[in-house]
Every structure is written in structure tokens, then in C-alpha cells.
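2024-03-11 09:14:02 DEBUG pipeline.ingest accepted 1 chain
2024-03-11 09:14:02 DEBUG pipeline.ingest length=316
2024-03-11 09:14:03 DEBUG pipeline.predict start
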Amino acid sequence: MSFTLAIHGGAGNITPAIMDKELETQYHHALKDALDNGYTVLRNGGAALDAVVAAIITMEDNPLFNAGRGAVFTKKGINEMDAMLMDGSNLAAGAVAGVRNIKNPIILAREIMLHSGHVFLSGNGASEFALKQGIEMAPDEYFFNRLRYDQWVEIRDSDYYQLDHKEDNLKGAIPNPDYKFGTVGAVACDAQGNVAAGTSTGGMTNKQFGRIGDSPVVGAGTYANNKTCAISCTGHGEFFLRAVVAYDVSCLMEYKGLSVHEACAIVVKDKLVKMGGEGGLIAVDARGNYDFCFNSAGMYRGVRTSQGKEEIAFYG
């Protein structure tokens, strides 16, 4: 049986114009490290779920990405993180939103799935559960990133939020020509034909009111089902929530018999575009077929398969 791991580190206006050779090298190494750690699990006969977690931990630990250590700052100048993990073999899921000082939110999502008796925990309750389970914590200084901080300082006295996005038709967003969505995610199909998906994010710069995006919401930013596929999304979360993007791809496969590639194209390049939503997703089905699909200029992405396919790419 073949197996596949695909990852992303965000989508957006990712073009050669905003990247120099040094930054390209840094992102290439970061994505390769995540692929190495996740794929090792699959190669050793491990489960798709564990491969997804291993890949995402690697990206959460890298401040290049808006997740874990690289999470952006909220209106209050703090870091609040969301994450979700889903097992396609049994539709088990664990999700967390609005947590602080959790070193690896994807690990907390796995604990929620396996040991809480619930699917979705948020805020202080999620933090209490994390302490109970012995999840590793980190001080505020661990999450401090000068680039992210300076981005926040520029707009903290305004009512703008920054998705690193040039949005015209949604009140509140501020233009930024270098916009990108730094969410990270992974999807995998293991040698047993089971699929899994995970997503982790720091959300939007200067976000207010405990805002939660699509990443931790079942069927919006993350979904996995052995009957169809595993999906992890990255983009303007408000649109991905409204379009229920990840589940929509799965439904097109389950009820219309479309391939993973066909289903992703309909949702991302037609439905989302008509709504004004920008971003992309990674997908894998239970036969190991994968797809990268995005309607933005680029998406940090990588894949490795047991058939010998390997790719790391940034641009469209």
C-alpha cells in the first residue's frame, strides 16, 4: 500500500518579488524538516495521525510560520492560538481555540481528541485541561517575534485587523502588498489506507473579541474521512467558515464521485472565488493521491510519497 504526506505553511501573495534567496532557503529547509519528521513516521509503518502531528509540531516550533512559536499578536498584544486534528478512520476530532502559552497547540488538540470526552475546547477551560494532561507550556517570551510585533505596532491603535491580506470587500482589513496567511497544516495517508488532517494557526494580527477562524472548526478548515479525503486549509478564514470548504470537498467526492483533484478545483477555484475568498488547501485521499489547490499567488507547500515523488514549492 502506498503512503503520502503533504504539508503547507500558508498561502497568499507569495511571489519572487517578496522573497530573496536567503528567505527562500529558510522556507525550503523549514518545509523539508517538517516533511522529514512526518514522513519518517509513515515510512516506519506509523499512523497517518502521528505523521500529521509530527509534521505540524516541526512547523509550530519554527517562527517563520504563524503558528505556535511564530503566532501573531492580537489587539491586546498577546498570542492566541487555534488548532485541530482529525482521524479519518473513525471521524474522531480534537480542536482548541484561543489558547495562550501552549508550546504546541496541535499536541493539545490530540489530547482533547483522545482524553477529554469532547471535541472542542477553548480559552481558559482548554488551558486547565492542558495543565491536567501535563502539556508543555512556554512563557510569553518564547512567542515573541520582532517582525510579528512590529506588524502589530503599526496597526494596534486602529480598528484594523491584519490577515496579511489586501481585502476590499470585508470591513476592517487593512491593505498589505506582502500579505500571506501563515497557518500551517498537514494531511497524510498511511500504509493501512487511513487518512488524517491537522491545522494550526495564530490567527490574525490585531484580531479582537476572541475571534476564531476556520482552522479549528470541523469541516471548515480541517476535515478527514477515509471514505473521501483529508483536508487542511489556509486562507481568509471568514470565507472558509462560510463555505465549509473542507467538508464541501469531501461531499463532492462522496456524493458526486469526483476525484480529490476535481473536488478541490470546484471549491477553491470556483466557489471560493465567487465569494471573494482567497487561499488554498492540501488534500490526500485513502489511495495516497494528493492535491495542492490555491487561488492565491502562491502557497508554501511540500509532499513526499512512497512512490518516490517529492516536491517543495512556494509560487503558483
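2024-03-11 09:14:41 DEBUG pipeline.report The helical segments are 21-43, 48-60, 105-115, 123-133, 146-155, 237-243, 245-256, 260-275.
2024-03-11 09:14:41 DEBUG pipeline.predict end
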